[in-house]
Amino acid sequence: xxIERRLEFQSATEAQKLxxxxxxxxxxxxxxxxxxxxxxxxVAVLRGDDQQTVDLAANCLVQLxxxxxxxxxxxxxDVDHAWRILCRDPQADIKTVFKDxxxxxxxxxxxxxxxxxxRSYLEAIRRNDLVFGIGPAGTGKTYLAVAMAVSALTKKEVxxxxxxxxxxxxxxxxxxxxxDLVEKVNPYLRPLYDALHDMLEFRKVxxxxxxxxxxxxxxxxxxxxTLNDAFIIxxxxxxxxxxxxxxxxxxxxxxxxxxxxxxxTQIDLPVHARSGxxxxxxxxxxxxxxxxxxxxxxxxxxxxxxxxxxxxxxxxPRQDAHQKG
Length: 325
Fold this sequence. Notes:
Blueprint: E1 3-8, H1 12-19, H2 24-33, E2 36-40, E3 43-48, H3 51-68, H4 76-88, H5 94-98, E4 103-106, E5 109-111, H6 116-127, E6 130-134, H7 141-154, E7 160-165, H8 181-199, H9 202-211, E8 214-218, E9 230-234, H10 242-249, E10 257-262, H11 276-283, E11 290-294, H12 304-315
Parallel strand pairs: 6-10, 6-11, 7-8, 7-9, 9-10
Antiparallel strand pairs: 1-3, 2-3, 4-5
């Protein structure tokens, strides 16, 4: 038996924006949920064979409408993120998650969480002086940490930002690369620069780096220092040795906050070396004043088209390994 839900919105103009150009958002919601979706004027009709799924799709549309009424323009990625959030937690309040502004890049562009885990991560950073964000690439671990750091610097909560990564992939090859040590490891620090340049003007970042307000350096540069009044981010922490991790964690000074990010499924250390991030989670599990936040595959933020491409490849029958073309 087919289940039907009719949703009528007060304004036809609002409904059209919610449904998207040529009902693009409705079609996207239908693809995500497996229901069928039609519209007429200010009315949306959702149909499906499962009551729970139809109700969840209806809840998603209603909550997106509530978000829209806060002057938020609904975009395709919002539909995707809202659906994924509600699939994990049907009781979630989409508006509360999306309106948690981390940093305003411009009046028209703000950085906000897009999953429940991301919001928990931000709340953990606000509450604690040390937070570990562990999970796969693409979940926003580093990007959101940088956004929180830039926000803290802008509000004068800290005096400088220190962003660091281990240059493990370089290994013994560093000696064969041109330039001094900083130039040799710069490619490994590029993702941190990219995040900064996405939030601040290029000249502003350059000026802050030159004056020492922002320091982006390999982990080896942290040894022997105490970092006061700073927001410190250790990225790719799965590639720290146990000794390096302890060294980094003991750099934390007064008035400082640190965020450690990494993916323990992507460890590039030599076989005999053990990850400092893996050990830290075991050693520090009962220590107060810090928190571990775990991200999962469903927290990976993709362009909607990328998601459809991945889905298409997953559905495509695997061809014989020896078949050419």
